[in-house]
Amino acid sequence: MDNNQTIDTKPQAEPARHLLSPKEAAAYLGATEKALENWRGTGDGPAFIRLSPRYVRYAQEDLDAHIAASRRRSTAEA
Fold it and tell me: Left, alpha or beta for 59 (phi > 0: left; psi -120 to 50: alpha)?
């Protein structure tokens, strides 16, 4: 390595992940936008990102985690 070269030791930012709109998230889950809105109010749905009061987005990995956490083997499970 040339003595005049420097090594960049700054941490690299994470790559931007694609965030889904409520409409896209509802389609992904097979739900309605209204259901997502209700779940946001009750805390029963997937994690969401509120970038401003009127700008809500969902990360696909959070939707997948919600699906996995909702999996049941019988109706007797809580």
Answer: beta
Q: At what angle do helices 22-29 and 60-69 cross, to 10 degrees?
A: 40
- Report the C-alpha gap between 54 and 57 in whole angstroms: 10
Asked if residue 3 belongs to a domain, the reply is no
61: Cα within 13 Å, side-chain hemisphere: 2
Q: What is the pLDDT of residues 13-46, one digit of tens each?
A: 555 578 999 999 999 999 999 999 999 999 999 9
Query: How many domains does one find in the chain?
Result: 1
Report residue 42 as tokens.
């009750």
Element (H, E) at 42: helix 33-42
